[in-house]
Write a structure and sequence with these properties.
The protein is mostly helical and about 100 residues long. The protein is about 60% helix and about 0% strand. The protein has helices at about 25-35, 40-60, 70-100. The relative contact order is 0.06. This is Putative nucleic acid-binding protein.
Length: about 100
């Protein structure tokens, strides 16, 4: 049971938290709002990067990944290419850190 609102979960009551809700969906949304922590600075920064990448892709390709119509194989190949790029960046960072630590 939640000490702040007296409910045991998001769907147990239409009157949880001292507020009456018209629907179960409203009760769940209100419970989630009270019990979901604020996003951390890191989470907010990651969300901003994701939003920027989505906008970049939309501008470059005219579509989002959701509506690109790619096959599973095509998505896997794109992921494989992105993973290779990520490995190159990670390797460059490690090498640079080693170089800086040695000096």
């Amino acid at each position: 049971m939640c000490a702040s609102c007296g409910t045991t979960g998001p769907g147990d009551s239409l009157t949880g938290g001292g507020t009456t809700h018209d629907t179960q969906e409203e009760a769940i949304a209100a419970w989630n709002k009270r019990h979901t922590p604020a996003p951390s600075n890191t989470q907010q920064a990651a969300a901003a990067v994701l939003a920027a990448q989505e906008a970049k892709g939309l501008s470059k390709y005219g579509t989002t990944l959701d509506t690109a119509g790619l096959s599973l194989l095509e998505i896997a190949e794109h992921y494989q290419q992105e993973a290779a790029d990520a490995l190159m960046y990670a390797t460059a960072m490690v090498e640079l850190m080693k170089k800086e630590a040695a000096s």
